[in-house]
Design goal:
Elements lengths: L3 E5 L5 H10 L1 H8 L6 H8 L10 E8 L2 E10 L6 E9 L8 H15 L4 E7 L3 H9 L3 E2 L9 E2 L2 E2 L7 E7 L4
Parallel strand pairs: 4-5
Antiparallel strand pairs: 1-2, 2-3, 3-4, 5-9, 6-9, 7-8
């Protein structure tokens, strides 16, 4: 896990992120009913919940050397000044079950707590047991699945194919 770095996404990273999305087809099918499309990488830049500004958006890559092994989509200070919202937290299949996701998540939770945020929200498809278990292992309280295309869930507006998303909350004040 010590060999994994986290950095901001750059435009030249788009091919690697597209490859990550293709490798994570299992997640996209669980979330939307369809595999990721090439345009899904670009839509990451614009996927914001109502009331959020583009300067609050952070797209972070998990890298092992030059290889992209994961991605985190975060909106800082949303839905309020003491919160941040995670929309997508992907780990490449070849890096799963190695502690990569847990290690990065713990580092990011420490970072946001150090910047004064007290709550983190996340979304996960209701049937994505690996993601739900991951959230619970970090101490998130996972809510009941919500339906309703167009409704804001976590850090973005839900797409047409996204039904049955669970919202999860972690209070950093309790840590």
């Amino acid at each position: 896990m010590d060999d994994v770095t986290v950095r901001e996404l750059r435009p030249e990273d788009e091919p690697a992120v597209a490859a990550l999305f293709a490798a994570c087809e299992d997640y996209f099918v669980a979330a939307t009913g369809n595999p990721a499309l090439p345009a899904d990488v670009q839509s990451l830049y614009y996927a914001l919940p109502e009331g959020a500004d583009f300067d609050q958006k952070r797209l972070l890559l998990m890298c092992r050397g030059a290889d992209v092994v994961g991605l985190v989509d975060v909106v800082d200070r949303h839905p309020d000044a003491e919160s941040c919202a995670v929309g997508v937290f992907l780990v490449a299949p070849g890096a799963r079950r190695e502690g990569v996701g847990t290690g990065v998540a713990r580092r990011l939770l420490e970072e946001v707590a150090g910047r004064g945020m007290r709550r983190v929200t996340a979304t996960c498809p209701a049937g994505w047991e690996a993601g739900l278990g991951f959230l619970r292992s970090l101490g998130f309280e996972v809510g009941v699945a919500q339906d309703g295309a167009g409704a804001t869930v976590g850090n973005r507006t839900r797409g047409r194919g996204e039904t049955g998303l669970c919202a999860a909350t972690l209070s950093l004040a309790d840590r």
